[in-house]
Structure formats: C-alpha cells, structure tokens
Amino acid sequence: MTGREDGNRQRETQAGQGPAWAEELLEHLRPAGRDVRRVVGWLSGAVRGSVALQDAAGNLMAGTRIPLDEDLVTDITAGRIASAAWESRERHLRLVRVEHPSHTCVLAVSREAPFDRRAADVVTHTAQVIELLLTARESTAAGHRLRRATSDLRLAILQLLMVEDTIAARRVAAGLWPGLLDADTACVYVVESDPAVRDRIAEECLDSTREDALVVRCPAMDGHVIVVSPREAAGEALRSLVGRHPDIFLGGSARQSLARTATAYGQAVSALAVAHFRPDKTAVYAERTHPERLMDPQALRGWTARVLRPLDTLPHHTRAELLATTRLGLEFTAVNAAKVLGVSRNTVRARMERVEALLGTDFADLTVRTVVHLALNTQIGLTDAQFSDTTADSTLRLSDLLSGPAVRNWAQNLLGRLDADARNPRRTLRTWIAAGGNAERAAQALGMHAQTVREHVRSAEPVLERQLLAAGTDLYEVVLAHLAVGDLDLPVLHRHD
C-alpha cells in the first residue's frame, strides 16, 4: 500500500504541511474511523513512502512488507531502543516501537527523500495513534471474550434449572451473582425481537433488571431472550422495556418453584403467542383451570406413581435425567429441547426412546404423549416420600380419573366452544389428533385438503385460547378433553391403563 495508489491523491499536497496532517490523523480516532490498516495507508500517503506494521515474529499486520534488519527489529521489540533510522542513496528508513497490550510491534517507514522535521513528526504521532488503536482493540476483544464467557455461564445455569438440578444451578450462580437464585420460586419471561437486534435487547434486559435476574439468549429461538427472575420487579421492568420498542413482545409465566423452570418456560412461550394480539404486546400465562386440578389428588398421585414405576429401577441420577429430558421433549421439538439442554438431538431422542421402551408405548401417538405429559407434570410436584408403595398400589386407572363430573364438565365446556362453527372444526380437530397431528393423514380421512385441515385447527386456537399447532401443554389439555368426553380412545401404557 502506497500513497500513490491508496486514493489519497487529493490530500497528498496538504499532508505534512502545517496542522492539516494532524487533523487528518485525529480523524482516525473517531469511532467510525478506528482501523489500523486505514491509518497505515494514510501514513503512506502523508510521507510519500512505503509503510509496514509488523510484530516481533515478523508477521505483517498492515501495510506492505519492507526488508528490515532482523537484529535491529529485535532490539526495538525487546525495548533496548525505542526507534532507529537508516539511510542509503536509494532510500531512507525509520523504525519506531509501537506498544501493544500483548506484544510490541514495529512501525517501519521507507521513502526516497530524507525525513525532514514534519515527516518525522508525522511518523512519531502516527505510531502513538496506532498504539492507542491496538490497545483499544485488545480491550474490546477482551470485553467480548468476557461477555461471551458470562453469557455461556448464564446458559449453563438455565440448563441446570431445566433439568431440575437447582442445587448445582445455585452453586454455579453464587460465584458471579450471589443471592440470585436464593429464592424458592421464580417467574420466567420470554422477550421476542428481531434476531438482528436480539443482542442489544438482551443487554437492555440486563440493564432493566439491574442484573437481578438470569438473562439468557435462547439457544433454540434466535429472536428470544429468556429471563428467569425470583423478584417481582423484573416483570414491570420488562414491560417498560417492551413499551419503549415497537417490535418486541413479552410473555410471562405464573410463579413456579425453581425445579419447575421448564414448566414455567413453556408457560411463558404460550403467553408470548397471546402477546402478539395484545395492544400492549405483553401477556402473562393465565392461571386457568387445569384438568389435573379437577382430579382427586391422592388418586392422581397413585396413578402417576404406577405409570412411572418402570423407571424406579434406574439409578436416581439416570431417572431424573430421563424424566427431565422427556418433559422438555414433549413440550418442544427434539431439536429445540436439545438446544435448551445443551445436548445433541440424538441424545434427546435416545433418552425419550428409552422412556418409551420402559413404559411400553409409542410417543408418535398424541394421546400417549398427553398421558405421559400428565404423569410427568404430576410427578414434578411430588417428593420421593409420596411415591410410596402404598400410594403406588392404587387400582384407579386413567379412565377413573377422567370420569369425574368436574373433569367431564370442564372437557365438555371447552370443546363445546367449537360447536357453533358450521365448518365442524371439532371433527377436524379430533381427526387431526388421532392422526398424530399430521394434516395430510387427517385430510385423507376427512376427504379434504391438508391446508383446510390446518386452517380448521388454526381457527380453533383463539376459540379454545390454546396453541394447537405447536406441541406443548395447550395441545395436551385439548387432547385430554377429548379423552374425557370419549371422543378419543384411551391409550395403553405397559398394561396398566
């Protein structure tokens, strides 16, 4: 790179004359112009010569390579001398030491004419500017590494919470954020933005919550930021953040124990879908009547213990790992569950297949997924002591749990909302569920187009106030309603139901 070829011709006549060169050099310290290569190119034009910036090992960092005496370069980078000059008939050479946070560099300038006072000053001051830029770049890089490490640590804590390992999560968090997870309960929020601005929104979430919450860039959804906060003030701070930005949305969970972070996350995602239709772009998961709350608690615990009994022979850690992975795998796709847990999707599938084998069933069946989801959600609220042999010996079956008047009335009222639609979306929805949520198979059974099936299912979502096209708690509640009213056959789990 030389002054005659770098586009600086218009400035060559002024560079080096009076203060003009200093003003030009200072321009390179502005935020938009901080580029070492540009500074070296400018220097080449300012002194009408060749310029090279290289490290102690001889690696060229900017400019064009210039033959240099290795011993002289070593003396400068070792700090024995600060600068050097060399002359011959053909060229004049100046070498100046440039300090760098991690290693010293050499700025070498070669030109045909001797160095006058102004040219020497330009070289000296340019070396100082390069030194500032290199230091700033190193500091910026170190800051990026620190932020990346901190971000990775936050994700690791979230992944521990997702698999119910609250003890390890607290231990990891205590080092950097003492007291962050001391509470027994927390709310989970999901902030949705354009992926291009997510990093900035994540930083604003940290500022808004004053780092009093666990803020994580969602590993599964590029536009999502997950916030786990034990403190009430975080919700208000995040709502204020949404109000300041026109294109972001907020979904929040009900307060849950830390061990139920995965459940709270699912609630927040469900609320986020509702937030898209709200004027204030925010929604909190509605504490509606859930079917399991209408069942006899003792009978539900006994049935749950029996359903999950085949897993009781496993070591405690393995059992907990399989249950946590399956719970997430039923809420989300295997790919997204894997990203949230920090494992491969093959690992998620392998763990779920092992649970399938132990339970003697097939998760391709939506009714099976629903029943296992009910058992897992019940199990998470139980202590090991409640899984006693006496409780597990209950003879009640799923049909008994669903036949109670409270559950049946709930199911009839929920599905009855669809009866007013002349298109009969209730029949479409029932057929779609029986087909495992596959629109093409349901369309063949109904004699309609697959897109029509999807439209019927999609139109049922606002009526039922539940997401159906995305697997999760909302869909499983609707499936459970179909089971309760007898519109679908009860699945069989290892010959107990």
UniProtKB/TrEMBL annotation:
Gene3D superfamilies: PucR C-terminal helix-turn-helix domain. Residues 1-12 have a biased composition (Basic and acidic residues). It comes from the Bacteria. Residues 1-20 are annotated as: Disordered. Residues 335-377, 427-469 form the PucR C-terminal helix-turn-helix domain. PANTHER family: CARBOHYDRATE DIACID REGULATOR, DNA-BINDING TRANSCRIPTIONAL ACTIVATOR ADER. This is Helix-turn-helix domain-containing protein. It comes from Streptomyces coeruleofuscus.
